[in-house]
Amino acid sequence: MSQFSDPVIITCSISGAIANRDQCPAIPYTPEEYAAEARRAVDEGASQIHIHARTPDGTPSYEIEDFRAITEAIRAEVDDVIVNYSTGAIGVPMEKRLAYLRELRPEVAALNMSSMNYAKYSKRRKDFVFKAVFENSFDTIIEFITEMNELGIQPEHECFDTGHVANLDPLLHMEMLEQPLQISLVMGVTGGVRPVPRNVAAMSDQIPGGPEGPNNWQVIGVSRDQWKLLASSLVLGGNVRAGLEDNLYLPDGEMARSNGDLIGKARQMAEDVGRRAATVPEAREMLGLPARGGGGQGEEISRREALLHPLEASEGSPE
Questions:
Q1: What distance in Å separates the CA atoms of residue 216 and residue 126, rounded to the nearest whole number?
Q2: Which of 120, 221, 242, 319 could in theory staple to 129 by disulfide, Cβ–Cβ 3.0 to 4.6 A?
Q3: Cα–Cα distance, 10 to 22 (Å, whole number)
Q4: Residue 208 has pLDDT above 50, yes or no
């Protein structure tokens, strides 16, 4: 047995669709780069990879073939990891966002839970870097849920404010959703809830069944406020997401060299409060996802296994 109990699902937001290599050279563009970053993240403790697709020149993409190429490259590199597709977009038709779900059927797909102002504000410029209305009406949400249910895809409910969490209530009452749910509390986007630790507690209290109930919840912290928000989630019993989509910097201000740096820091934080990163099979069980078939893993102890179960690894390693 590991010396740590209470596993935490660590998700890697591997690339995003806004930042580029001018801001961080580690952001992956090609399928091969996505695969290498996924390997680094999984080796450090990630059990789920959240994917925004890009073309090989870095342009954000909603094309089936780009999602396919990235997913196949990740699957070839990593024996087992939960694949989670983004579906959120401004100005991209719903039918296009449904098309890659229908064709590729990821295990999980993000589902944004309310319309909102979605912006980034620069205090230095005294102006918005960008601003838009992010449409996610109940009609849109219900159409996505209906499709996901038919395709066997688990929604990851992304909630940018307290009321977004409450939007789950009528959907549960309509029996459109099956518990355990996967719920993300997203903080740090202008137009959503303020990114302060007290709001982690406030939002998690709104989780159907309560923060210690049957449903899984994680915190997504956007920009450099991320680390205090993830710390709050960890001590309150939640899961966490880190990666180059959400934040490019480590707590000391150093730019991350890879997604692995960010996931490694999230794993260390979990261990510092007496928790540990969930293995992929554990994460599947916690989320209510089916197990995948064996992947030809040998007896050699991997870096991930040594990090997640150090006592077992030390006992089984040759002297």
A1: 38
A2: 120
A3: 27
A4: yes
